[in-house]
Design brief:
Blueprint (H helix, E strand, L loop, with lengths): L7 H11 L5 H9 L8 H8 L16 E9 L7 E9 L5 E7 L7 H12 L3 E5 L12 H10 L2 H16 L4 E10 L1 H13 L5 E5 L15 E9 L1 H4 L2 H10 L4 E10 L12 H19 L1
Parallel strand pairs: 3-4, 3-5, 5-6, 6-7, 7-8
Antiparallel strand pairs: 1-2, 2-4
Helix pairs in contact: 1-2, 2-3, 6-7
Length: 293
């Protein structure tokens, strides 16, 4: 279905579904009850659900990379060990390190593909799975959202922080670190810039929660902050964040991508905006190559 055919009310309902306790059945039932022009609310809602076969840009068998699952220690987190997807470029290294942080539903195939995309560009990429203490990503986003809500949110941040330290100190790492993440992961990317100080060189959050103003003085990394144009919930935090970044002389750039919605980088749903996603990703890679190489 052409994304332009989907009623705005269905998009709004999907955003509520993604960021609340609403289950898939309720989302579809509520969408079906919306009277839309030129189609069915139910069909539009089903079109928004992710199709991860569409999300793969780099195959896990690509000879430019080597991918495997690892476990790392996570003191203070939700479990003693957290599982992650580690992807290294072909060659001996060392490589600049990058952490990829998933949305609020665990390590799904889209995020694994993002890690492979980084590795193809020459980065040692780790994508942790916050759902590890509960058995890992369950194979669907609906259950993944429920599982992530069952975990201590503060400890999830610690699990991601420990993942950043793990990949930065990996034997294949050159000791420099970048982070990127999406939605929940975008907020974590801002958090890592605060917590790691000068131990992280760059962070590129996509439509994520801003760091608290009082924590901004701790940020030493270069920030590349990506916003969707139609994303009221996240964009409401932007003015205060930018004011704090300016006041503390943080090296940052903010971009808003015209005609985009929250989740525009995720190519598994119609919210995907190919041109904006490519531009944001190219900018992210350029930042990482500049600051981490």
């Amino acid at each position: 279905m052409d994304p332009k055919q989907i009623d705005q009310r269905i998009y709004d309902l999907y955003d509520e579904y993604c960021h609340s306790t609403m289950r898939r059945r309720e989302f579809l039932e509520r969408a079906a009850a919306i009277a839309v022009i030129g189609g069915s609310g139910l069909a539009m809602a089903k079109a928004l659900l992710p199709d991860y076969a569409k999300a793969q840009m780099v195959s896990f068998t690509d000879d430019r990379i080597k991918a495997n699952y690892v476990e790392y220690d996570s003191p203070g987190g939700n479990a003693e060990k957290i599982r992650g997807y580690l992807v290294q470029p072909a060659g001996e290294g060392p490589f600049p390190a990058a952490l990829v942080v998933h949305e609020n539903r665990g390590l799904n195939p889209y995020i694994e593909d993002v890690a492979r995309r980084l590795a193809v560009e020459g980065f040692l990429a780790l994508a942790p799975d916050a759902l590890s203490p509960l058995g890992g990503y369950p194979g669907n986003d609906d259950d993944g959202r429920v599982m992530q809500r069952q975990l201590d949110a503060g400890k999830i941040y610690i699990d991601m922080l420990n993942g950043a330290k793990y990949v930065k100190s990996h034997e294949l790492s050159n000791g420099k670190l970048g982070a990127t993440g999406f939605c929940f992961g975008g907020g974590v990317s801002n958090y890592l810039a605060v917590e790691l100080g000068d131990e992280i060189q760059a962070s590129a959050p996509f439509y994520g929660r801003a760091a608290d103003a009082e924590d901004v003085p701790k940020i030493k990394a270069s920030l590349l902050i990506h916003y969707a144009e139609d994303d009221e919930r996240v964009n409401a935090m932007r003015p205060g964040y930018e004011e704090a970044l300016k006041a503390n002389n943080v090296d940052y750039v903010m971009h808003t991508y015209e005609g985009t919605r929250h989740g525009f980088h995720n190519n598994s749903t119609p919210r995907y905006n190919e041109a904006a996603a490519k531009l944001a990703w190219d900018r992210t890679i350029a930042l990482f190559k500049d600051k981490l190489a």
